[in-house]
Write a structure and sequence with these properties.
Helices cover 52% and strands 6% of the residues. The chain has 436 residues and is α+β, with helices and mostly antiparallel strands.
Amino acid sequence: MSITEKLSNFICAPAAPTPEVVQIVDLCLLDWASVLYAGRHEPVARLVREQVMHDGGKEESQVSGLKRRLPARAASLVNGVTSHALDYDDTHFASLGHPSVTVFPAVVAMADRIGASMQQVKHAALIGADTAIRVGIWLGRNHYRKGFHITGTAGAFGATAGVAHLLGLSKVQTQMALGMTASMASGVKAQFGTMAKPMHAGLAACAGVDAVLWAKAGVVAAKDGLAEPQGFAATHYAECDDLAFKGLGQRYLLPEVSHKFHACCHGTHAMLEALQDLRKAHKLMPENIRSLQIFVHPQYLDICNIYEPRTNLEAKFSYRQLAAMLLYGLPTNRLDSFTDAICSDSDIRDLRSRVTVQPDLAFSETSAKVVIQTTKGKYLSAEHDFSRPFNLSVREQKVLSKSDSLIGKKHRIKLWSCIKREEESDIRIGALLILP
């Protein structure tokens, strides 16, 4: 059975999720809706929104930052870009992708168009997220290290899967949709630190909507565009690890997702947590620090190690900048900590000049070590690995608290209630999830 056949069977007839999996989907949906709302004023969100408004079209789906609706494909594009604009959304480290910002925009936009329920949205999004995660694992580290952004590549297949399930496509139609996605999935890591990075999420979501609608209309594509000779895997440096599909349809991988509790690249979070512990334990002051060494997995040197960041976006991808900000007490979980001005602050620049980043294969992709030498010659060190997950109740409280900070507690309570109740309503799904 081909990869596309396996995925199509899963998309069309998935197993029922456990209550724990459903709870994770709920948290992912709340987190996505919160970062979507918070990102609506970002320059890239405004620019893309203005362009799709200019294009116009049938009023089908709710768009973040707009009162009027737009075609589903346009809504998925804008909402995907907007929800990834702050780089504050969830990450699945086994696949190295951001599943929610590609899958939820596509599924919610189509749900708005057809009048689907909250329960249908969550189930379709789970199918899409699991597909994105497994395709990302299948593509592998080589695909990523060659320069492809898995959020844009594997995420497009996840968006297609979620929308195909929501619309009830046949297995053959689903294969055609996945085949067409192989010609549209894209995204390169050269864009990290620019407006084009969040574009990857929106383009992946839009590709999913387009591929499904075209397949439903009868467009024919390669039966296995993923794995055929000269298909996606062969042309995109994929490792093609078939173990990625072990347990497909029986066990969901979404519960392994990591939510962000710092408003910057997830690759920096282990360092920030270790440094935060060290600062608190020793009451460290910037003027008492002679040097700081950060030890991380080598893959992050070309992702989040911008040496001299100049903008708020670049700051989110700079170990040295983030370490200096944290040591000066700037809360890295707050969006307003990230400004262009903070990159040129003389005190921050002075401290970050004392920071070095060292690659070390002894550390996993989810771990880091920090070593501080004080002005008195004392060495202090700490390590952190966030692959050790929070228990579900702690995770829920942290996501709820993050949502409160992004959209306000009043909005969060209302939104969480809508997500948990799954009530049928005359109100279209976008009106419940996409706050004005």
